[in-house]
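Researcher: For the record, we're logging two predictions in this thread. I'll number them. Prediction 1 follows.
Model: Prediction 1, sequence and structure:
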Amino acid sequence: MGKTKEEQEVTHPTQAYPWHAKSKDECFAELGLSQDLLRSGLSTAEAQKRFETFGPNRLTEKEKTTLLQRIWAQVANVLVGILAVVAIVAAVKAATAKNSEDRVTNLIEVGLICFVIT
């Protein structure tokens, strides 16, 4: 969703200059602009030429992360992996528990661990 490869290759020839350190007149001279540009604006021909050279005047969009990428970023952690293993062990213990008190305790542990992970 960002710039295409062709758009990335087209760079402005004066990008290396520290524009904040120059005066307005110096910037206009380096870009080859007339001094009355602020009053008159760009001509249609100049605007078309810049459009063809530099492309549309758009901000690039940041690459969006999918839901699976966000989940993986959270799960790809040693501590989260250990908690997941403990939750699985607690779930197995709950499924094989002889009495209901152990079953409820282990299910509560699974719920709390899942809450902490999320």
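Researcher: Logged. Prediction 2.
Model: Prediction 2, sequence and structure:
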Amino acid sequence: STSPSVVLLLSSVCTMGGSAHLSFTMGALMCAGGAMAFFRKGSKMSLIGGCGTGALYIGSGLLIQSGQNRNGHALALGTSLVLAGGMGARAAKTSKFMPAGLVATLGGLCGLYQAKKVLEWWEE
């Protein structure tokens, strides 16, 4: 039997609109990336970090869908800044683009979009 919270999450994702797409997509990518790193290399920190940032992105998408646009985009912006900063530092330290540089780039690009949306919804 599927729990009601899982059904609610799946129905929300299946009916997402507009600006929630990026949050849900980033959430799925971060969770998948963390899980992949765990299964390939045994990295518990990648699993925790990926699923943690993924959960924050999914939470922001749910906030946006519920009409709390400013709060949802602000949460996604904060998550993006932490992601870009943390993974950017790791990419610089290792001098490798994959995977840290790619994740930092995704975080930075997502952050730019989220900052634009926060400014649009600021007076809400």
